[in-house]
Amino acid sequence: MKKLLLLGAFALFGTINAQSGFKLGGHIGAPVGDASKVSSFTLGVDAAYMWNIMRGLDVGIASGYSHFFGKDRWDDFGFIPLAASGKYKFASVPLFVGLDLGGAISTKNGVDSGLYVYPKVGYQMSNAELYLGYQNIGSERRDFDRDRRIDSNFGAINLGINFFLK
């Protein structure tokens, strides 16, 4: 019985591992919400490792870097997300929906790390995916004029592409 369970585990792991993969890409976006007041646009890199757990459903981990370019008197700032990632590919059309959920680490003093939410819709190609997403980081920032903390949502509507590296 042990041998049968062990053989089953190896077969399952081999199937999951054969269908797993790394993806790497980038995005460009327009800041929305509180970010639109302090940033003119955003650029970033995306990285994820996904496992196919059943037909059409991939889960994994995601990270990267999003850089918000400051406008007027505001400095540039950025976030490094660390998130769980999920993606569902529709069987009959080359479209998918996805969601990254986790935390985002701020790279700027005066802007706190916060909750990271990134829903996406996209077009699935054989070696890449093109997507439109709404990236949102719930955080706090320091208002230096009034010397207090302000709840902020740093969001961006992004257009991105990821390439599958196998």
TrEMBL record:
Domain of life according to the entry: Bacteria
Keyword Signal in annotation: yes
InterPro entries: OMP/PagP_B-barrel
Segment forming the signal sequence: 1-18
Keyword line: Signal
Protein name: Outer membrane protein beta-barrel domain-containing protein
Organism: Chryseobacterium taihuense
